[in-house]
Amino acid sequence: MKDKMRAVLDFIMRKSKIVFPVLVIAAVAVTVVIALNANDKKAAQMESLANEASTEEVTPTTEPEVTLEHKDIPLVVNEDSAIYSLVATYYNAQALGDMDTLTSICDTIASEEMIRFQETAKYLESYPVLEIYTKPGFTQGSTIAYVYYKVVFAGREEECPGVKTLYICTDEQGELFIKNDVLSEEEDQYIKTLSTQADVVELFNRVNVEYNDLMVAQPKMLEYLSELNNELSKVIGVLLAEQIAGEETSGVDVPPEIDPGTSPEPSTEPETPVIVYAKATTTVNVRSSDSINADKLGKAKEGMKLQVLEQLPNGWNKVLFENREGYIKAEYLQILENVDNLQIIGTVIATTNINVRAEASKTSTKLGILVAGDSAELLSHEGEWCKIKYNGEIGYVKAEYVE
């Protein structure tokens, strides 16, 4: 396998300006994400980087000045052979489920992202198109790479387009690596500024048009992607739960066996604890303790769903963030209804392919898609919207598209 990888890299160095087939992992829909915080992870749709918010406890920050020199540099494609080699290695390693290679070229990879890489790789056939458009990064030796790709899934012929943004930096030894950790405020604002420039927006729009055209021409592909996304979400959720359970029970003493000749004392079985979830109402810092002076563990982006472990009387909530405990001020979290506590009043059937939203609004976060003919349990009818149970969560669909 190492010889094959070396051969691929040698070919890249010789033909860096030629788009060639290479196995890679890809999101199941168009996504535009900075590869920094994987926990955002749901199986992937295009988000506008220009509309994202990044705050220090929601305190407004001043946008750093972007030099005219950087503003005047247009996107270039497949120009740097070293960057092309790094990106191709990154995607190839994801397709193969090669975590050792991924960890060697990324500064950090979250547990959920690793699981997603391994599970998604099982469904990939090939990656026939790979184009890398670049602009200078925020610091010396860094580059913003907009990776345009087309992916073919196992058992299918369609080439599904997508685009992903990577932040590539140089370490002290002069080696390139993909920065997958949380960005600084300055880096974050800089990337957002460049990503709103005309040539980048044009690239995003091009991919969006290609993707929508494919879905219209091949409706079965849309159905396949929806089912694949749901399946991956379920599998990843189970694996993460098992991982967390394993960490919590490691080192716990095993209770002594009961003598078969004796009768165990009757015990009252404890009630099943109610699991509480909340979503971030804006992008906010996650702290290591309930203090604004505590270390930052990362950022919870606006709309991110988090499990609330404890609601503290001092105005903070203890949450589960990237498989560890963290703290967020309660004022920046909205407690969500528990779908298991709601009464099911009927069933709806989609009459066409429709989006499932997190709230009763066209601009709300999209949870997924109900394909024509799919059914969902109805929780309530709220004007133009139906409140439904979708993948264990509360979702909303337009009433005019269901019966």
Brief account:
With 403 residues, the chain is an alpha+beta fold. The chain contains eight helices and 18 strands.
List the keywords:
403 residues; alpha+beta; SH3 type barrels; 3 domains; five-stranded antiparallel sheet; 28% helix; 27% strand; globular
Describe this structure in words.
There is one protein chain. This protein folds into three domains: 2-226, no CATH class; 276-335, SH3 type barrels, CATH 2.30.30.40; 340-401, SH3 type barrels (Roll), CATH 2.30.30.40. 28% of the residues lie in helices and 27% in strands. The protein is built from eight helices and 18 strands. The strands form five sheets. The chain has a five-stranded antiparallel beta sheet with strand order 1-2-3-4-5. The protein has a five-stranded antiparallel beta sheet with strand order 11-10-9-6-12, with no helix packed on it.
Topology:
Blueprint: H1 2-14, H2 68-71, E1 76-77, H3 81-96, H4 99-105, H5 111-120, E2 124-136, E3 143-153, E4 160-170, E5 176-178, H6 185-194, H7 198-217, H8 219-249, E6 276-280, E7 284-287, E8 296-300, E9 305-311, E10 316-321, E11 324-329, E12 333-335, E13 346-349, E14 354-357, E15 366-370, E16 375-382, E17 385-390, E18 393-398
Antiparallel strand pairs: 1-2, 2-3, 3-4, 4-5, 6-9, 6-12, 7-8, 9-10, 10-11, 13-16, 14-15, 16-17, 17-18
